[in-house]
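Bit of a strange request maybe. I'm writing a small parser for structure token strings and I need a real example to test against, not something I typed by hand. Could someone generate the tokens for this chain?
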Amino acid sequence: MSRSILLTVDPDPRIAARIAEIFRGEPVLNLSAGTASEAIALLRAQPVVALFCELALPDLNGISLLVSAQQLRPEVAGVVMTDRPSIESCVEAMRNGARDYLFKPISAQKVQAAWQRLARRFGPILGAHATVANSERADAEREQTERASAAFRLDPPHALGRTSLGEPLADTNENSLTVPLHGDLKEIERNLVRQVVRRFDGNKTAAAKALGMHRKTLYRVLEREPHQAE
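Reply from user aminoacidic:
Good idea to test on real output. This should exercise your parser:
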């Protein structure tokens, strides 16, 4: 049976060991690297199809590594991991080709749900067996993921450049953005943008400026045409 090759890149070897343990018994070959340079060497040598990458690496930003990985292997499906999540890095990761954005600590639920999303979108690339074998477990993980949300707190209000992520399912207030975490990264970004637009009372120009994106990009994220502007 052929196996999909998954590369985990994290300076903490416990992360790669944890992910390898999650996929034990599955048709997945787990490779690991602690730095971007090690990862690039493995990408040159192995037909990697999925990359789980820490955002903060010792020698290169994880998003920059993802860009390099996709240049070497355009078929690579990338997932960014971080213990310091923010709107800015989430949006930047999506713009640079990431397919998911995981908040640490890493759990089996988060990893399996991300793999399921990759499998549904890139099944032919990941391989015929690119799903978690236990369908009941997979269904449970998807259900749990679909219930999850996170609160992006604004401090001070509207200062998106200083936004940080609150605890999952945290109580929200007028200075918070609560975002569902199910679906792919584009869906997460779309939910973020919609909430920022609402926070600015529908002023899309102000929302685009706060998010650091062009207004046309904001319209594209919202799946609206520019002539529909208010």
